[in-house]
Amino acid sequence: MTEPPILSVRGLHFGYGPAGPDALSGLTLDIAAGTTTVILGPNGAGKTTLLHVILGLLSPSAGEVWIAGRRQAERSRREASRLVAMVPQNEYIPFDFSVLEYVLMGRTPHIGTLGMPSNADYAIAAESLEALGLRHLWHRPVPELSGGERQLVTLARALAQQAPILLLDEPAAHLDLANRMRLLGLIDGLARRGSTVVFTSHDPGAAAPVARQVVLMREGRVLAAGPMRDMLTSEHLSATYGVPVRVALVEGLPVVVPGGAP
Fold first, then answer.
1. What backbone torsions phi and psi does residue 143 show, to the nearest 5 degrees?
2. How many angstroms separate the Cα of 115 from the Cα of each of 81, 87, 109, 118, 260?
3. Distance CA 129, CA 152 (A)
4. What average pLDDT is seen over the chain?
5. Contacts 24+ apart (CB under 8 A), 142-145
6. pTM of the complete model
7. What pLDDT score was predicted for residue 51?
8. CA 142 to chain centre
9. In terms of domains, do 169 and 73 share one?
10. Residue 67 pLDDT more than 50?
């Protein structure tokens, strides 16, 4: 028997204003548990909007989001936060929290109202920092970090949340090569341990090393979805990005080359 999807969206519509076009237009998508899925598409395709609707930050004008067999709208904020964590592209942090204090915020769904972090919460936060090689930044104020360091610290906070579903919006956008490789290794490790990872990217080349499933989006719609090898083709990517794209195999992985005949 096929397992039901851990994450499902049905007929989603969302617009940012009554006069503008829908950012999401009848979008339907299923994500299986324990998979790593990349949502690929050009700027303005609706990738970030989709993650925000899944997380509950935005309310669709039509359609539903199902998480672990229940409608998202039926869950409390605390309950939903125990199931889904998100790493945004950018996050404004108004106070001079230390790195450890900021990562501890990921434990909020597991701490009672007006409660204080326990020794176990501190240990989980420390483990999250260690996994990303950030323990040496423990006491640094977050606003003093570089863009790449801040992106990794935000990821550490999401890891401390210990949600089975992790959403990442352009997670490698501010990272250098070494930290990008560390991030990809972490994503691969999370999937091997049974987590469900969904990340967005405008760069098809970023998907090949870790993604098992690919969703291609354009203008608020899903053009195609399926296994990486079936989706990262010249035909599919040219249709997604609206320009000719060539795909070649290098050591068994697809490498995307802009230009040339599709």
1. -60, -20
2. 17, 24, 11, 9, 59
3. 9
4. 89
5. 142/93, 142/96, 142/97, 142/98, 142/99, 142/102, 143/93, 143/96, 145/99
6. 0.91
7. 96
8. 21
9. yes
10. yes
Taking alpha carbons only, the member of 70, 37, 62 closest to residue 51 is: 37
**Cα Rg of the chain, angstroms:** 19
In terms of domains, do 222 and 248 share one? yes
At 17 the three-state DSSP class reads: coil
**C-alpha dihedral over 22, 42, 159, 174, to 10 degrees?**
-130
124 and 23 co-located in one domain: no
Q: Could you tell me the two tokens for 99?
A: 């790195």
User: Which residues, other chains included, contact 89 with Cβ-Cβ below 8 Å and sequence gap of 6+?
Assistant: 48, 169, 170, 173
Q: Per-residue pLDDT averaged across 26-33, rounded? A: 94
Are 77 and 179 part of one and the same domain? yes
DSSP state of 97: -
